[in-house]
Design a protein that fits this description.
Elements (H helix, E strand, L loop, with lengths): L1 H40 L18 H12 L8 E2 L9 E2 L1 H5 L4 H12 L12 H15 L4 H4 L14 H13 L6 H7 L4 H12 L3
Antiparallel strand pairs: 1-2
Length: 208
């Protein structure tokens, strides 16, 4: 009886140790993936580079959808370069960065950055255009980008406080068809012009 008890105890300990080691391996894998991301997007996804979007604080769904779009080459992948790390200065793009990621990898990366704080960029803006941009946002964008574009709960991204150069690039990609655009957003985009977009960008840049 004692031998049986010891055997069960050993099996339980082995199972626990196996789970512990597996969890540690997964954590190590995620940390490695995240480290690669932070070499461009900054610690916690708080990018200090105007051409590189801030990604910390976005929802899991939003991040998964966009990383998957890059993996499937449904989004344009402009050439960029590593900002820090051992590969600093080396050219790359988002399609290359995610091509070998599994669905599980993408979800874990998304979960990590969703838990970070969205650190708004400190940048210049035109107060007059920002006021006009608020009116345009309230009329066309608020339904999907609520609370002035500051809420991650919509799973639509947070334009408020995002880098201006990146927002300009995003709007260009939406308009040119280089980036998937939801039908509802396409209808709204068709109703506004270039000046309206400029005003919107200034409005989003006004968030500090």
């Amino acid at each position: 009886m004692k031998n049986k008890h010891t055997e069960y105890l050993l099996l339980a300990c082995t199972a626990f140790l196996s789970l512990f080691l597996t969890a540690n391996v997964r954590a190590a894998d995620v940390n490695k993936l995240v480290e690669t991301c932070t070499n461009c997007h900054g610690k916690g996804g708080a990018s200090s580079e105007p051409e590189v979007p801030i990604i910390g604080g976005y929802s899991v769904e939003f991040l998964v959808n966009n990383l998957t779009a890059y993996k499937n080459k449904e989004r344009a992948c402009p050439e960029t370069q590593y900002r820090t790390g051992s590969k600093k200065g080396t050219k790359t793009d988002m399609c290359k960065m995610v091509k070998d990621l599994s669905e599980g990898d993408i979800k874990q990366v998304a979960q990590h950055f969703s838990k970070q704080k969205f650190v708004r960029a400190k940048q210049k803006f035109d107060p007059v255009l920002a006021k006009k941009g608020k009116e345009i946002h309230d009329m066309y964008c608020e339904k999907c980008h609520s609370e002035g574009g500051t809420s991650s709960a919509d799973d639509s991204g947070m334009p408020a406080g995002q880098w201006t150069p990146y927002l300009k690039q995003a709007f260009d990609e939406f308009n040119s068809g280089k980036r998937p655009i939801p039908k509802k957003m396409k209808l709204k985009m068709d109703e506004i012009n270039k000046a309206d977009i400029d005003a919107l960008i200034n409005y989003y840049a006004s968030f500090k």
